[in-house]
Design goal:
283 residues; Rossmann fold; 2 domains; five-stranded parallel beta sheet; 9 helices
Length: 283
Amino acid sequence: MQGRVPNQVAGLAKRFQAFIFDLDGVVYRGSQPLPHAIETINLLMTSGREVFFVTNNSGATREQYAERLQQMGLPVAPERILTSAWATVHYLRQQMPRARLFVVGEPGLKQELCAAGFHLIDDPEAQLPDAVVVGIDREFTYQRLAQAQWAILHGAHFIATNADPTYPAEDRLLPGAGCLVAAIRTATGKLPLVIGKPNPRILLPLLDEHRISLDTTLIVGDRLETDIALAHALHMPSALVLTGVTTRADLENAPLDLLPHWVLENLGDLLGDPVELLLIRTE
């Protein structure tokens, strides 16, 4: 879509009552909003559509993500944002409510866990944790790797907020949490439980509260193996936007079970016509 965004909901967006947007590579890259993202999402919200955001990035709290979006011009409340960190909290509350945790991750993940009442352990060799929780950690060290290895080999559960190998910054891809998860998996020989996309668990709060209908909600993401795979797991319609990780060349080599229903150059294409030109797969 070129030029200005229409002032009313049209095209593909008109078909849906709710939207679930990924963040990195869809709404923004680094600190920069992506083309037509802010005005398109604002239009959807002012039209009465339900809009939610789901990210595998565990580096910040929901409140911090909401503040970031607000600074970009999107008036979003924290409860509209689902992160892999918060989904991990949701899982632990149900399955290990009094767990002691060793965390490989950044302050956002630790803050979410502490706010939920979990006890975080600094030295797993002094006090064995019940689980090792791994997310993005841009200060990851060999010592943290060795500590996580020791805890898991001595019986701690291995839980990953996500396994994304990369995430998009302003002008490049950077290593994601999946690189750290892979290192710990290699060091232990153990497979983690991955909480974030494509695990449908990340959407359980919306589904349990009946806040979305699967057939009238569009998932919009930039990564086939997480965003689009999540949509397929729940039999939901999906759109891939080419402003993040996945390229058209990737689509040409993708298996049928990872193809989206529509491909968008940017979020403005949600309002574009004719919609049929965007359709790449039929039911």
